[in-house]
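Thread: quick sanity check before group meeting

JM: Hey all, I'm pulling together slides for Thursday and realized we never actually wrote out the predicted structure for the chain we discussed last week. Dropping the sequence here so it's in one place. If anyone has concerns about the input, flag it before I start.
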Amino acid sequence: MISALRRWGSLLPSYAPIRHNSDSICLQKYLPRATAAKSFLLGPSSPAKRIEIKLGNLKEKEMREELMEIVASHFEIHPFATGLTKENAKHVMRCYLAMSEAFPYIQAGAHRDLLMDAIRRNVPMEPKMEKTFVVGSFLTWDETGGQYLLKTEGISALPKILDTRNFHSRILKKDLATIFKEKIEPNYCTHTHCYLTALGRKLGVYNHTERCAMMVAFELHAGQMIEALWHSLSTELELNKEDLEYFKIHVGGDDPGEAYHIEMVKNLMQSIVDEEHKSQFFTYFKRCYHMNIEWCKAICKMEERV
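JM (edit): ok, ran it. Output follows.
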């Protein structure tokens, strides 16, 4: 327990140490080395599947290409593409379900400390805070099924948001019950607990550049992660991919939602990160992407009893 907390503690931001039941103090220290590449594969068994960066003006092009290079250089093959097996699939999916269930709540509350700080100092909300807040609010709304409901049924369907069966985590839970022929509950294991704690802190950190980097890293990683998980689950468990509704919503079909999320956070990056803070942003981005990857590696290696 303590060793796992220390491992995840190393990925928490250094600006505000946090204690987990007095087991450890969490500090951030990881900084990977960057090299060049053009795009990243989502898994060894899908070599043609790539996420391409849309390019705007020269500055936007350089920033977006650097994002692509970082992922290709350090995180080309996702842990779910090689680490998910028939034996560990149920455990991995219970941990993944916990993340899916928790994320909208974490994102919804991420700006609380920033708000309270502005109130204490009697100052208005900064535009950069407003931008990360509006993107975070949309992601929360989308995860609860609200965006899909309005898109398919219009504004008159708004009262239907009380039907929480449209939460993405509930759709995933339904898929998992079909896959494993039993009710699957989330597992907030030690690794997942510490990962979600770190995620919440980074999504609410006062540093605008770091907060933006976490949002960009989370969404770019989500596209890679969900695609790899969809492929591995269907291959290892011999499933029809098209029967898994959760994955189709995010990365399947002709108009997958995750592509829009990725484009949105790239635009967020361009609106917040100026030339002076560009190097710092990419440092934070690498750390944040690594944090997501490490959680995926950890839950693939854990035993079910943890």
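AS: nice. The CA atoms of residues 103 and 196 lie 8 Å apart. The chain is about 60% helix and 0% strand.
JM: adding both to the slides.
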